Amino acid sequence: MSEEIPVKDVTPINASEQYEGVSAKVNGKLYVRAINGFFNKLRTFSLWGLMLAYFITPWININGTQAVWFDLPSRQFHIWGLTFWPQDFILLSWLLIICAFGLFTITTLAGRIWCGYTCPQTVWTFIFMWVEEKIEGNRNQRMKLDKAPLTKSKFLKKLSKHSIWIVISFATGVAFVGYFYPIRELVPDIITFTIEDHWASFWLLFFTLATYGNAGWLREMVCTHMCPYARFQAVMFDQDTLIVSYDERRGERGEGRGARKKGVDPVEQNIGDCVDCSMCVQVCPVGIDIRDGLQYQCISCALCIDACDEIMDKMHYPRGLIKYTNEHALKGNKVHILRPKLIGYASALIIMVGIFIYSIFDRTPMEIDVIRDRGALYTNSSDGRLQNSYFAKVMNMSTNEHNFTVTVEGLPGGELSGKTTIHLMPGDVGTLPLNLKAIPWELEKSRTDVRFIVTRDDGLVAEEESRFIGPVGR
Ligand code: SF4
Ligand code: SF4
C-alpha cells in the first residue's frame, strides 16, 4: 500500500530546506531557489565562457596592439588584427544589422535563448545570485535572515555579500573601460590612483554602479520593465518557435493538479501529473508561474524544467511536464522547422554576413585623400608651366609600418613634385604637400581629371580622383 506523502516531503532538493509557500516573491522580494540540472549546467558553461572572454579579451595583444581596442580619441577601432576607421563606418552599420538579424533568426527558431543563456544581464545576475547563495544560504535561509533583526552575524553577511558584489562590479567596469582605454595602462593607473582621463574615471564609476544596481538590485525588473526586447519578441514568435512550456493537458488532467501519495498513477486516478509543489515557481528568476501559460517575462532560462524534472524523477513520472517545445507540438499538430519567416530572416542574415566578409577582405588597409590648395586655382611657375598645389593625406590603416609613394596619372606632360614619399607607423596619417605642373598648351580643357595614386612598399595601391585647373582649353 502506498504511503501518504505530503507535497513538502517530495519537493525539497536539500533535506535541510523546508517548503514555504507557492509564491517566489515574499514581501515584494524575489527569493530564487537554486537548482541544479541539465539546463543550469548548460548555462553555467556558457556563463563561464562569456565571463572569461569578457575579462581576458582586453589583455590580448596582436603585434603589440591591444586586440580589441575602441580607440575613440584616435578614431580607430582595433578588432583582432584589423583596424577600422571612420571611413569604415558602413562596416560597423553592417555589423549592427547582422547582429539584429542574427537575433531575429535565433528568436524565431529558438525563442529567447539569448536572454536565458547569454544576455549580460542574465550572466551577471546569476553570478550575483550565486554569491548571495554562498554567503546567505539557500532560499529559506535568506528569507529567515531578512526577517531576523539586525545582529552582528547578519550585518557581516550583508557586508560580505555587498562587498563581493562591488568587487565584481568594479572588475566589470575596469574590463569595460579597458576596451576603450589601453588596459595595460589603465590598471596600473587605477592601482596607483594616477588615472588622468576624467572620462575613463566617469565610465569606470558608471559601469561599477550600473552592474551593482542591475545585477544586485534590479535583476528581473531590467528584463520585465526596462529591456525593449521582451516587448517586441512576440513579433518574431510563431507557433513553431521553441518555448518553455507547461504541458497543461498532462499536468491538469481530470481533477487537476495537487498533492498525492508517492507512487500513485495519475492516469488511473484521473488526476494531473503536477503535484503542485511550486518548485517551478520558486526557481524562476523572473518570479512567474509557467503553468499560467507563456508570459512575456519568461526569459527561457529553463530552470523550471530542471526543477520539474527533478520532481518527476522523485515521483517516478516521466520527465517533460515542463519542457522546451512549441505550440504546434503542444496541440499535437505537425511541427515545421523551415517556415517562411525563418527562411526570410536566415536568408537576409546569410546575405549580409557574405557581404560583410567580402567587404572586410576587399577593403584596402590604406587610403589617400587629396585636397586642392584653396588659396589659388593655379599659378604660373617661372619655367612657364602651370602649377596646381594639393595636400595628400595618406592613411596607414594596417597594423604594420610601411613606406608610401604618391604618383599621378591622367595629366599629359604632368610632373609631380614636393614630398612624394612618407613612412607611416600603423594607424598613422601623414600629409604630403604636393605640386603638380603641366605645360599649358598640352591641356585640352581648363579642368583635367587626374588620378593620385599611393603605392605601399609591398605594391598595394589606393587612388583618389582630383582635378588640374588651368586658364582655358586649347
Ligand atoms: S518560467 Fe521557467 S524558463 Fe521562464 S523565466 Fe521562469 S524559470 Fe525561466
Ligand atoms: S509543474 Fe512541476 S515543478 Fe511545477 S508545481 Fe507542478 S510538479 Fe511542481
How do the strands and helices of this protein lay out in sequence?
Layout: H1 7-10, E1 25-26, E2 29-30, H2 38-56, E3 61-62, E4 65-66, E5 68-71, E6 76-79, E7 82-84, H3 89-110, H4 113-118, H5 120-136, H6 139-147, H7 152-177, H8 183-191, H9 198-218, H10 220-226, H11 228-236, E8 243-246, H12 248-251, H13 279-282, H14 303-315, E9 322-325, H15 327-330, H16 340-362, E10 366-372, E11 379-380, E12 386-396, E13 402-409, E14 415-418, E15 421-424, E16 429-438, E17 447-456, E18 461-469
Antiparallel strand pairs: 1-2, 3-4, 5-6, 6-7, 8-9, 10-12, 11-12, 12-16, 13-15, 13-17, 14-16, 17-18
The protein binds iron/sulfur cluster (2 copies).
What is the count of helical runs?
Answer: 16
Strand content: 15-25%
Radius of gyration: 33 Å
Shape: elongated
> What ligand species are in this complex?
iron/sulfur cluster
Number of strands: 18
Sheet with the most strands? 5 strands, antiparallel
Ranges where pLDDT stays below 50 over 5 or more residues in a row are: 1-21
Q: What's the overall average pLDDT, rounded?
A: 90
Structural class: alpha+beta
Tell me the span between the first and last alpha carbons. Answer: 115 Å
Determine the fraction of residues in helical runs and give it as a percent range: 40-55%
Return the domain count: 2
